[in-house]
Model the fold of this input.
Amino acid sequence: MTFDPHRRKLLHGTLATVTLAACRPPGVKHDPGATTPAPIDSTTSVQDTLPIDGPGDGSLLDTGWADTGVSPPACSATTPFAEGPYFLSDAPDRTDLRSGVTLSGTLFTLYLTVRSDRDCAPLAGAIIELWHCDPDGDYDMTSSDMLFRCRVRTDFAGQVALTTYKPVPYELDGEDRWMPAHFHLKAYAARHEALTTQLRFTGDPHDDGSLPTSLMMTPTVHADGSESAAYTLTLEAT
Done:
């Protein structure tokens, strides 16, 4: 078979065009009449030479993160507050503090999370003790049911959900003043300082301003009249 040198030139030209197309950035068209481009300056990033909005290029993904090289700030430990005179040890392990008793009160669900101030990581198996007054403003100090008291452990995500009646304000004996509605809490976890504190509600007409705003909750009111709130207890690592 006779080899045609003109055919060889055409073949070489075709192969060169295919090779250049494979190496060419997306969206950049080959111009056979264009001159050889000047070398890219060594101080210029190859990324800077590629088109951003040209045809065939995917959209840039905005992750929402700013790469500042600075670690996020550590979580602040929850402010402690007075225990009060009504704590009892050995409260039942339960998430429904009503113990089957039906009273005239606002059904309330409290979602608690316990985490470490070292790295904000949730603390699984942390112990929470919580107690509060009943819908009449009284604490159960005598019955075997230990109403409106519990001692529970957080789950693998450091969380627990407690069902109870919303505590109410009550008048302090002989002091001619009212105690705002509140929950009492204690929290414990290995290698962390124990925490004793209180949680109150924003907008309480009896609030005296003695509790830091960081310990105030704004409940969500649901269509059925029940309420709920969430709070994160941050323990100080030792």
Residues 5-68 have pLDDT under 50 and may be disordered. The two ends are 88 Å apart (CA to CA). The first helix runs from residue 5 to 23. The helical segments are 5-23, 46-49.
